[in-house]
């Protein structure tokens, strides 16, 4: 019977072998420094290859009206637009506006959910960027309460 420690050691060895043979996906670490360093919604959209965003009913954002724990705010983004290459999730008043970026292909439904940290009440944006560089957005105000007191 293997111990937990031995199992972890063997798992690490197998992962190392897979990485060295090219069988382990190396592309999963997507990161765009300019976009994540952007301080505003417009800067982040521009860094991701989008034009000035236009409000659209085809882009939706979900989240709570009041988040009692700003450390884990559940948010969702989706769109019914066609030809979308990226979906962005942005929090206007966070130190770095861009929270998440999702690459969309024809095989992927443009419907994503994640959790974000929010230090204060802010507008949250869902942005869909199409293959031709057009950007469409929806926004929602999320109020963050201090200490979960609800007011």
UniProtKB/TrEMBL annotation:
Source organism per UniProt: Limnohabitans curvus
Biological classification of the source: Bacteria, Pseudomonadati, Pseudomonadota, Betaproteobacteria, Burkholderiales
UniProt-listed NCBIfam families: SoxY_true_GGCGG
Record protein name field: Thiosulfate oxidation carrier protein SoxY
Swiss-Prot/TrEMBL keywords: Signal
Signal peptide per UniProt: 1-30
Signal among keywords: yes
All copies of domain Ig-like SoxY, residue ranges: 47-149
């Amino acid at each position: 019977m293997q111990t937990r420690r031995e199992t972890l050691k063997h798992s690490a060895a197998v992962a190392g072998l897979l990485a060295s043979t090219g069988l382990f996906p190396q592309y999963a670490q997507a990161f765009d420094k300019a976009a994540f360093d952007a301080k505003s919604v417009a800067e982040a959209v521009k860094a991701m290859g989008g034009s000035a965003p236009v409000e659209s009913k085809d882009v939706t954002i979900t989240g709570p009206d009041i988040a009692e724990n700003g450390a884990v705010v559940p948010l969702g983004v989706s769109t019914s637009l066609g030809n979308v290459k990226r979906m962005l999730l942005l929090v206007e008043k966070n130190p770095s506006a861009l929270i998440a970026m999702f690459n969309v292909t024809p095989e992927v439904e443009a419907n994503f959910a994640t959790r974000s940290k929010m230090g204060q009440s802010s507008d949250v944006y869902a942005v869909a960027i199409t293959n031709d560089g057009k950007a469409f957005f929806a926004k929602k105000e999320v109020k963050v309460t201090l200490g979960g007191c609800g007011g």
